[in-house]
Amino acid sequence: MRKVFITFLILLTGMAVNAKNIDYEQIYRDLEVPTHRYIHDVDPGEYYDTQSSTWSPYPLFRLSSPIYFKTISIEPGYYVLTPREYKDQWYILFKDSGKIRYIIPVYDREVVPVTFYEDHIPQKKLTITQSLHIKALDTIGRIFPSAKRKPTPQTYLEATDLDHNYLSLVIYWGNYRYYTIFRTIAL
């Protein structure tokens, strides 16, 4: 039994090491700088995504120092990050004041694990009046289906500092997560 347990641990450790063995430098080299632009720097899908929301459903990213993607220099500031598909390629739109400032390619898109949002996002703590208000709105939604509130997509954001001055940014939006990579120094 002991040998089986030790063998299992060795195999598990080996699989974990292989899963994290990603060549970020090669991924960065293979990604191309986007050449397309949007008319008047306006995201055409934003209206559809925000029509049932009171606020923007996209994650907000605060950048305190510049980051770089090849010839694109992203200046410090607050950006709303929006994943968009264009000609079968996924891109992250960096939007500031409703205008698209930067377009960065995505190198990988995966489905979010089922329990990810419950494990990583804390539950809202509502006051008594807030919970009564929510229950009243839910009751109205059950009586009149057209008045039922649609849930906004859940979002999450991970930024990881990697070796050799790379920064990995993972944007979770709805049922998918989008991976992109930057440099922290200009080349």
Molecular structure report:
- The protein has one domain.
- It has helices at 2-19, 24-30, 46-50, 116-120, 128-143; strands spanning 60-63, 67-69, 72-74, 77-86, 89-96, 99-105, 108-111, 155-162, 166-173, 176-183.
- The chain has a four-stranded antiparallel sheet, with no helix packed on it.
- It is built from five helices and ten strands, in the order H-H-H-E-E-E-E-E-E-E-H-H-E-E-E.
- Helices cover 27% and strands 34% of the residues.
- It is α+β, with helices and mostly antiparallel strands.
- It is elongated, with a radius of gyration of 21 Å.
- The protein starts with a helix and ends with a strand.
Give a quick rundown of the structure.
The chain has 187 residues and is α+β, with helices and mostly antiparallel strands. The chain has helices at 2-19, 24-30, 46-50, 116-120, 128-143, and strands at 60-63, 67-69, 72-74, 77-86, 89-96, 99-105, 108-111, 155-162, 166-173, 176-183. The strands form three sheets. A four-stranded antiparallel β-sheet has the order 1-4-5-6, with no helix packed on it. A four-stranded antiparallel β-sheet has the order 7-10-9-8.
